[in-house]
C-alpha cells in the first residue's frame, strides 16, 4: 500500500461521485442530498488526512516537482486549495438541494476540486514518489486510512487553515 496510490484512488472516487450527481434526476432531491453528503464527507476527510499525514512528510522530504517552485509553495497552495474547496462546500450547504443555486455551488466546488487534484497529482505526488521510500509511503497510507475510516461515518468539521502558518509549522497542528 502506497499513500500516493491511495490518494490517486480517492481522487478517482471524487471524480466518480461528482459524475454520479450528473446522472441523478434533478427532481430526486433526497438522492442528490444523500450522495452530496457522502461526497462532502469524503472531500473533507481526504483533505484533513492529507494535512495531518501526507503534507508534513512532503514538507520534510520534498523539493518541489512539476511546475512548483519549491515544496513550500506546493504545500501552501494545496492547503489554500483545500480551504477554497471547504468554502465551496459551505456555499452548497446554504442552498436548497437541487435548486439552481445549489447546482451552481456544486459546479463551483467541482471546479475547485478538479483544479486542485490535477495540480496535486502533477506536483505533490510526483515530488513524494521521488523522495519518500516505500516503507514511509506505506506507513503514511496506514495512518491516513485509519483516520479516514474512523471519521467517515460523520465526517470531520471543516476548519480552514492559514497556508503560510501551516507551512511555517511544518504541518503541525495550528492553535
Automatic annotation (TrEMBL):
It comes from the Bacteria. Residues 3-123 form the Hemerythrin-like domain. InterPro entries: Hemerythrin-like. Pfam families: Hemerythrin. Gene3D superfamilies: nmb1532 protein domain like. Residues 153-175 are annotated as: Disordered. PANTHER family: HHE DOMAIN PROTEIN (AFU_ORTHOLOGUE AFUA_4G00730) (PTHR35585:SF1). This is Hemerythrin domain-containing protein.
Amino acid at each position: 500500500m502506497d499513500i500516493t496510490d491511495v490518494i490517486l484512488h480517492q481522487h478517482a472516487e471524487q471524480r466518480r461521485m461528482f459524475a454520479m450527481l450528473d446522472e441523478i434526476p434533478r427532481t430526486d432531491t433526497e438522492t442528490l442530498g444523500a450522495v452530496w453528503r457522502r461526497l462532502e464527507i469524503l472531500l473533507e476527510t481526504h483533505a484533513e488526512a492529507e494535512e495531518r499525514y501526507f503534507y508534513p512528510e512532503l514538507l520534510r522530504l520534498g523539493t518541489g516537482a512539476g511546475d512548483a517552485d519549491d515544496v513550500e509553495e506546493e504545500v501552501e497552495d494545496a492547503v489554500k486549495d483545500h480551504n477554497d474547496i471547504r468554502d465551496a462546500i459551505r456555499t452548497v450547504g446554504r442552498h436548497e438541494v437541487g435548486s439552481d443555486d445549489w447546482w451552481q455551488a456544486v459546479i463551483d466546488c467541482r471546479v475547485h476540486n478538479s483544479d486542485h487534484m490535477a495540480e496535486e497529482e502533477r506536483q505533490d505526488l510526483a515530488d513524494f514518489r521521488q523522495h519518500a521510500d516505500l516503507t514511509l509511503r506505506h506507513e503514511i497510507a496506514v495512518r491516513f486510512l485509519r483516520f479516514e475510516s474512523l471519521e467517515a461515518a460523520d465526517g470531520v468539521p471543516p476548519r480552514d487553515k492559514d497556508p503560510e502558518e501551516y507551512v511555517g509549522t511544518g504541518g503541525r497542528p495550528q492553535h
